[in-house]
Design a protein that fits this description.
It is built from eleven helices and ten strands. It is of the alpha/beta class and 339 residues long. Helix 8 (268-284) crosses helix 9 (288-297) and helix 9 crosses helix 10 (312-320). InterPro entries: AKR_Detox_Biosynth, NAD(P)_OxRdtase_dom_sf, NADP_OxRdtase_dom.
Amino acid sequence: MRLFGVGTVGPAERVEPAGHPSAPIPVVGPGIGTQIRVPLGETGVSAFPLMLGGAEFGWNTDTATSNAILDRYAEFGGNAVHTADSFAAGRSEYIIGQWLHSRGCRDDFVLGVRVGAHPDNPGIGSVNLVRAVESSLTRLGVERIDVLYLDGSLDDGSALEDTLATTEWLTETGKVGALGAFGFSPERLVEARILASAGYPRIEVLDEPYNLLRREPYEGDLRLVAGAQGLAVTPSHALEHGFLSGRHRSKQALNGVRGMQLRSNINRRGIKVLRALDLVANELQVPVAAVAVAWLLAQRTITAPIVNAFSTEHVEELIQGAGVSLSRAQLAELARAAA
């Protein structure tokens, strides 16, 4: 494994002496990734260039597996976790909160939470927004959300001015640090910046589904606005529901909701993209998933993709993407395959 291949040993673990004088000396201490941080726009917060998503926690992964995934991510030096109040009906938040408390690492992690899609508090109107934030804080067992992502995908008719005024109160009371947006159109982001110039809180981070296969609508006006406003873009669906990991290449044995999501990509274009990823992965001797992540990190305006994992092995594959540098020829080949 490149860059992040050095294992780390926790403080409670005992390191056995090497069996031979020429054997590698085990490394004790924080993972090498603790030295790798990128600023999230102008929030004043720095994060590892891959945010660990909690979409699978409490849904496809149980508590024990979720804790192991979080532990492995932290061992590599990762420090940013993203979840949503709608993930597994709030169980994702509960699992992450319990992990942060049991490991005593809340102050070391950047905690991002998306609100607005929970059935109990839908939309980002003033009343439901406050209720959603309070509920998330309770499930997480924390006093503050570092980056609050406003889910604008559900149009409940709320005035953006009222929403931002509410976030101002949440920020002043210390419940929220910085503001992010999800599902915002370019026009809505422009409106938000105009309101910010009038004194309302400023949106600093943007989450938009984006990957090698799903290039629209981000590669258009949305990217232009994000660049002009200096937003830190933390795209979700980095592996397109796991398809870009290269593990699923046949429609057989694909069942359930995840199977339906994957089936839609098993077509001529999808297979062509996987073949291009295979070639680059073979050249660099890294997993296919790492190449997909590296492609995202090579795109302008992208700060830290949000990646989900089903196991600790997936974490190890994804983390390598932060240490892969793709050549111009490789980037061009991947772009041609996805055209």
